[in-house]
Amino acid sequence: MIRVNNLTKRFGNFTAVDDVSFEIPQGEVFGFVGPNGAGKTTTMRIMATIDEPTSGDIFIDGYSVIDDPEQVRRIMGFMPDQYETYPNMTVWEFMDFYARAYGIRRRERLKRLNAIMEFTALDKLAEKEVNALSKGMRQRLCLGKTLIHDPKVIVMDEPAAGLDPRARIEFRELVDTLAGQGKTFLISSHILTELEEMVDGVAIIEQGQILKTGGIAGIRQELQSFTEIVAAFIGDPAPVERSLLEFPKVERVVVTDHTARFVFNGDAEERAALLKKLCADDRIKITEFTGKVQDLEEIFMKITDGKVQ
User: Fold this and answer.
1) Structural domains in the chain?
2) Radius of gyration over alpha carbons of the chain, in Å?
3) Whole-model pTM over 0.90
4) Cβ(38)–Cβ(204) under 8 Å?
5) N or C: which end of the chain has fewer CB within 10 A?
6) Which of 198-216 are b and which e, b meaning 16 or more Cβ less than 10 Å from the residue's Cβ?
7) In the prediction, which pLDDT does 255 show?
């Protein structure tokens, strides 16, 4: 659905985006992660046909942002990190303005406005002035404006920035609902713990270059050759420690009164064999056996160097 091909964008002698390529299949929610100044917003602005690339191209459902920008705009909704409103304009007037800008005729326009206002829970605020809305409601308004022409692809630049915890959760639920309708998303965010709950895959960018792209599970498996395991038990810790030290591929064993922590370099079958061995020993009573995997924040810190352009 989204294909970025060798995208480069220069501003004078400064290269903001450097030969970037990645793909997002139809219906997936994809995260775009990187430090400030990494090239995320520049890539998204080119994707939304606001800026033109120096070289390379982006294809949205087969349409080039260079050769077919009008077609791209018909099937894409872009939600920027900041947007301007007009003074003395109500929520309904703001939404109606964008619907008219897309050339949606009156009967269909009213139908879409009512549906989107209800979906974003803005229907009760229809007569309220836009400038009087809270940050969370303004984000819902921007999402509604983005959805007014029923796009197949939605690009969001820091949509959860500045939202309180409840507003972030409610916004994430809206995205989940839209993803369930088959829409394709590219979302940039610095709130990685929350982004991880939303996305199917991720592209990590730094200094204008893609460092890693793909599913989070695949990236995690590629980066982490070992698993940190925590085993809780009751009884004497001595046989637990002895049994762990005797098992192949177990390292860095630390045993306290009721918990054993260690690093295991084996695969899933070998991990199951270890658990079976522990449970077969009558002296050992395991109550919990948990593997700790890297989350998106840890993956990000491992891949990036913290360099800025």
Assistant:
1) 2-222 (3.40.50.300), 227-293 (3.30.70)
2) 25
3) no
4) no
5) C
6) bbbbbbbbbbbebbbbeeb
7) 95
